[in-house]
Design brief:
Strand content: 15-25%
Number of strands: 18
Structural class: alpha+beta
Length: 573
Amino acid sequence: MLVLILAYLGGVLTILSPCILPVLPFVFARSDRPFMRNGFPMLLGMAITFAVVATLAALGGGWAVHANQYGRWVAMLVLAFLGLTLLSTHLAEWITRPFVALGNRLSQRSAGDGDSVWGAAGLGVATGLLWAPCAGPILGLLLTGAALNGASVQTTLLLLTYAAGAATSLGLALLIGGKVFALMRRSLGAGEWVRRALGVLVLCGVAAIALGLDTGLLTRVSLASTGGIEQKLINAVRPAPAPQPAPKAGEPLPVEGTFPSLAGATQWLNSPPLTTDSLRGKVVLVDFWTYSCINCIRTLPYVRGWADKYKDHGLVVIGVHAPEFAFEKDPANVAKAIKDLGVDYPVALDNNYAIWKGFNNEYWPAHYFIDAQGQIRHHHFGEGEYRESEDVIRQLLVDAGQKNLPGGYVSDDHHGVEAAASNDPTRSPETYVGYARAMNFVGGRVARDDAHDYHAPSSLAADQWSLDGRWTVHDENAQLDRDGGAIVYRFRGRDLHLVLGPASDGKPIRYRVTIDGKPPGADHGMDTDEAGNGTVTGQRLYQLVRQASGSGERLFEIEFQDPGVQAYAFTFG
């Protein structure tokens, strides 16, 4: 219920976003008609269409994205006709004559024509195809959840609730606007001029959408104006999970549920398939992770340490690999990653999120501690509290009858990419490069799934980033089409990581990193030398910057000497 409230409030806030501006003329075009027969059906059609299209897009259907592009052009033609009919009554009669014969009532005809509920709904469908709300924190949260949970009634309901929130605020604007326009007509006798002005605004809205302003310039303006409000709503309605406090010595651990089935795993690595029955009598630690997640990587030394330290004392560690990106579903990629990361305990590939759903999990990383009777007795989300987690493991092993357990705690002296994050609370947020969840992008409109020449601006504000060169931006990554392309980011943090991968041919891709326009020197990361040089050889997380002193604001740039690189997401430490 709280997530539904959050989705609705996020939709309501879209009225404050400049991204809604191109849609407003289509809404106000029927402000002179009865609301229940015109405004309401139009807004309902818009909300349903957006929910359906967004659901399909979030589920990763490339065909849906391309089909919607064609639908957008058809919708723009229809709404351009609407704008022209508002400019002239005579032009309206001439334009709508063939549409009447075909039964097309999406366009508004002469002023004397009767109202049509279906015509208003059809206009809403066209508007829904064109509506591209800015991907602020709330919409990003909903789209991420849709991608993880797959096709479901809940997925569509959340997106429909978001759209309903937008329709509510637009409906209020329409009711107020209708009264204003009616007053203007009565007081000034300017009905025809108001009609023509609406026609001009409709045509301007179509032009703005055709030029990509709704997903380019207006997106950047809106993120600055509503992102903070949305994040506060997320924190208020759905606060970050508080870690479960470790029980006091001698107190029993609570029972949180039973061990869900592991049968949904698509494949097992380092082990034959395991079942909950075969694990009865063992203490089990289930670690949800994915190999390009920096937070997961930083917890791995502890998970590996616990597995090695207690494997002869009744502990079984299972890594449930739940992929975030499509390349993480490739078993060969995961097999290479676990070898490189030194993971030798059983790993279940959860490509369909079946085990994830069984635990009702929502986080990477997430640790669930299960006793010898198959009961979940403790959990921990995210990084930290490693000693408390090891105390839980020891308590469950003692309860299972284990004796003479090794003492001390697993070492916290870790280096390289596995080192703990800095304590800088102002470090830059995780930033996705693909358009489905991109935020804070600057440098023009994003041409979705089409090659486009991008030009990075001469200056960036904190946490802003841009592309430079010829790129094709997809839903979860951006691919470089021509050598010499670059990505720039004004970041804050000790570490900068970027998830990268080569093209489908797998050829290595050379890159060069600069910080504030100079080679990184002592501030280079593990995957970059002091001169800033490195090579993309596989699909994984690359540590490009580790500042030797502090975590202050810096301008990062990575230039690629070869085409084909795929960039997914920035993370910071």
